[in-house]
């Protein structure tokens, strides 16, 4: 069977030969003129040949207007799709659409979505986003041109090449796509409006800090989603957001002009209200408010500081040398809680570690929902204190630390808590949701508040990661980085459980975070001397300069830009992780 490959040209690739034939030899890439006409005739000629012949397509093909590069070819029809790259140097996109980084990202996103629509029903597949507009590898703008990374299930009749279909896809559908993405062909008004929306969101978020706000929710915003499994807006029965007058703020935006909405001030904000009155929906919108949304999402003008991190309990996670001493004083095991390691954290210690790690990574905005917290880390009421004395309870509850976190370290918290009034004691503002309408009930809550003595919050010690512990993991697994659904990131030999990392807004960010771990070590950002926060700064700086493709120029799949907080979260859940030093 081996003779069928390579068309008799002989030279063998792959290391299997020496051991008596593990891998099949790969055919030589087609040589000579490699233009559109040649590709067409080669594909038609391959019809009926053994599937492995597809590998001879590898390399560049000159289509005149664009270059098609066949990067990876699947070895059988059931393997993951093959990968091609389409580089169009000039599609007539004016500089106004790509000149600044925000518009460049938005226009690329718009064109990617258009490409997906145009490719509907084709074997060519392009990765695009859901409700968020995040930089991704699949569609990049060059200066006036476009750079697409596309997957294709190369067609076969069983193990034989279906050359006619392949020819149709690569030599007709693809050039049509390129034509249809030309600026002359698209609805430029819609494209510009898309970018305007994103630019307004970015401008709005940029104003939060100077106004001492951690979040803003515009009047009329639609927060609820269609269902628990759909991120699209609820269409029927959605109650639009109406800001309470006392928290109303107006903001000027470059395109939309003046908009008004609820400003969530820095400090401690409590969201209360009866069950099913929309508390978690509001918090969820704030979690996603670190990202920009597509026009029509309903949350285009719902923004949160870009350092906001959702905190939750996560029983069973690993913790590697985290200083959780503000929350955990003396454990029954006698372990040093300023250098805490466990293979199996409890609900409370996992949540404490999540908070300390978020602060370590640089977050100054914590988002917390009672639905996913460990009660014993949140509150301890008087009766429990009377029964279990201070010296028997190692935990310092969050309620005693949330004020020092803000006053001494500038870390704000937005907290949903419908089940206990204890947080009235520490809240700066209290918003009550009543049938999805927010009311400012700060004064009433304050009248019910008690005096409370705060505990001390000393910033957790900074960790220096041993880069070899990360590198080894991929090296031994030969660099495998793969996402299994939205549950697991396969990183070399490690399976990282990412289910509790709630601010991955796009599955591609999970892959992106895996690639970012690799880059942290490979790009020497994490060099065994820098702290984790310094390493993340260095990576952010490089990503800002080079863009998302810094992460995976050699990677045969789609990926999306992750935030530093999710990169840190993935690293913190790597079971092989070793921290070399605490500062
Ligand atoms: P809570 O956390 O207060 O118990 P949720 O935020 O989980 O409540 O919301 C309960 C239900 O109400 C969900 O099905 C959600 O989709 C719906 N909902 C939330 N906000 C709105 C709104 N503004 N308009 C209509 N339905 C909403
Ligand atoms: Mg809830």
TrEMBL record:
<dbReference type="InterPro" id="IPR027417">
    <property type="entry name" value="P-loop_NTPase"/>
</dbReference>
<dbReference type="InterPro" id="IPR019195">
    <property type="entry name" value="ABC_ATPase_put"/>
</dbReference>
<feature type="domain" description="ATPase of the ABC class C-terminal">
    <location>
        <begin position="191"/>
        <end position="456"/>
    </location>
</feature>
<protein>
    <submittedName>
        <fullName>ATPase</fullName>
    </submittedName>
</protein>
<dbReference type="InterPro" id="IPR046834">
    <property type="entry name" value="ABC_ATPase_C"/>
</dbReference>
<dbReference type="Pfam" id="PF09818">
    <property type="entry name" value="ABC_ATPase"/>
</dbReference>
<feature type="compositionally biased region" description="Gly residues">
    <location>
        <begin position="1"/>
        <end position="20"/>
    </location>
</feature>
<dbReference type="Pfam" id="PF20446">
    <property type="entry name" value="ABC_N"/>
</dbReference>
<dbReference type="InterPro" id="IPR049069">
    <property type="entry name" value="MRB1590-like_C"/>
</dbReference>
<feature type="compositionally biased region" description="Basic and acidic residues">
    <location>
        <begin position="23"/>
        <end position="36"/>
    </location>
</feature>
<feature type="region of interest" description="Disordered">
    <location>
        <begin position="1"/>
        <end position="36"/>
    </location>
</feature>
<feature type="domain" description="MRB1590-like C-terminal">
    <location>
        <begin position="480"/>
        <end position="579"/>
    </location>
</feature>
<dbReference type="InterPro" id="IPR046833">
    <property type="entry name" value="ABC_N"/>
</dbReference>
<dbReference type="Pfam" id="PF21117">
    <property type="entry name" value="MRB1590_C"/>
</dbReference>
<feature type="domain" description="ATPase of the ABC class N-terminal">
    <location>
        <begin position="38"/>
        <end position="180"/>
    </location>
</feature>
């Amino acid at each position: 069977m081996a003779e069928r490959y390579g068309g008799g040209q002989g030279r063998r690739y792959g290391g299997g030969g020496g051991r008596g034939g593990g891998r099949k030899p790969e055919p030589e890439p087609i040589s000579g003129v490699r233009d559109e006409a040649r590709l067409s005739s080669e594909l038609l000629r391959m019809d009926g040949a053994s599937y492995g012949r597809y590998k001879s397509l590898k390399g560049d093909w000159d289509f005149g207007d664009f270059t098609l590069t066949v990067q990876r070819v699947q070895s059988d029809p059931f393997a993951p799709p093959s990968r091609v790259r389409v580089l169009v140097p000039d599609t007539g996109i004016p500089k106004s659409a790509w000149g600044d980084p925000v518009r460049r990202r938005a226009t690329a996103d718009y064109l990617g979505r258009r490409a997906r629509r145009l490719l509907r029903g084709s074997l060519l597949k392009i990765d695009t986003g859901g409700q968020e507009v995040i930089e991704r590898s699949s569609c990049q703008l060059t200066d006036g041109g476009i750079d697409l990374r596309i997957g294709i299930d190369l067609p076969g009749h069983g193990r034989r090449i279906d050359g006619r279909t392949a020819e149709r896809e690569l030599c007709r559908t693809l050039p049509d796509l390129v034509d249809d993405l030309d600026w002359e062909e698209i609805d430029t008004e819609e494209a510009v409006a898309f970018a305007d929306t994103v630019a307004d969101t970015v401008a709005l978020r940029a104003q939060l800090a100077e106004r001492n706000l951690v979040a803003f929710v515009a009047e009329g915003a639609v927060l609820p989603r269609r269902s628990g499994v759909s991120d699209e807006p609820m269409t029927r029965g959605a109650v639009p957001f109406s800001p309470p007058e006392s928290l109303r703020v107006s903001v000027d935006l470059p395109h939309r002009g003046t908009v008004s909405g609820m400003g969530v001030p820095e400090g401690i904000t409590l969201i209360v209200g009866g069950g099913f009155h929309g508390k978690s929906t509001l918090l969820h919108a704030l979690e996603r408010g670190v990202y920009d949304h597509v026009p029509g999402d309903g949350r285009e003008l719902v923004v949160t500081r870009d350092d906001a991190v959702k905190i939750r309990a996560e029983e069973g996670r690993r913790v590697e040398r985290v200083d959780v001493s503000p929350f955990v004083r003396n454990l029954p095991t006698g372990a040093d809680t300023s250098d805490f390691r466990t293979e199996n954290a409890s609900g409370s210690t996992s949540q404490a570690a999540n908070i300390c790690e978020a602060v370590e990574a640089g977050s100054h905005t914590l988002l917390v929902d009672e639905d996913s917290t460990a009660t014993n880390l949140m509150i301890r009421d008087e009766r429990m204190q009377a029964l279990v004395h201070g010296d028997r309870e190692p935990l310092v509850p969050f309620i005693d630390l949330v004020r020092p976190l803000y006053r001494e370290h500038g870390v704000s918290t937005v907290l949903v808590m419908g089940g206990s009034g204890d947080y009235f004691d520490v809240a700066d503002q209290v918003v009550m949701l009543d049938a999805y309408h927010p009311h400012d009930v700060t004064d009433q809550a304050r009248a019910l508040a008690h005096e409370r003595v705060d505990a001390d919050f000393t910033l957790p010690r900074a960790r220096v990661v041993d880069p070899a512990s990360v590198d080894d993991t991929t090296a031994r697994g030969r660099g495998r980085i793969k996402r299994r659904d939205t549950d697991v990131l396969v990183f070399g030999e490690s399976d990282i459980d990412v289910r509790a990392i709630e601010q991955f807004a796009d599955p591609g960010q999970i892959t992106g975070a895996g690639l970012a771990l690799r880059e942290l070590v490979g790009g020497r950002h994490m060099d065994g001397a820098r702290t984790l926060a310094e390493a993340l700064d260095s990576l952010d700086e490089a990503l800002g300069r080079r863009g998302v493709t810094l992460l995976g120029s050699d990677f045969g799949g789609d990926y999306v830009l992750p935030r530093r907080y999710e990169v840190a979260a993935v690293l913190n859940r790597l079971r092989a992780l070793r921290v070399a030093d605490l500062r």
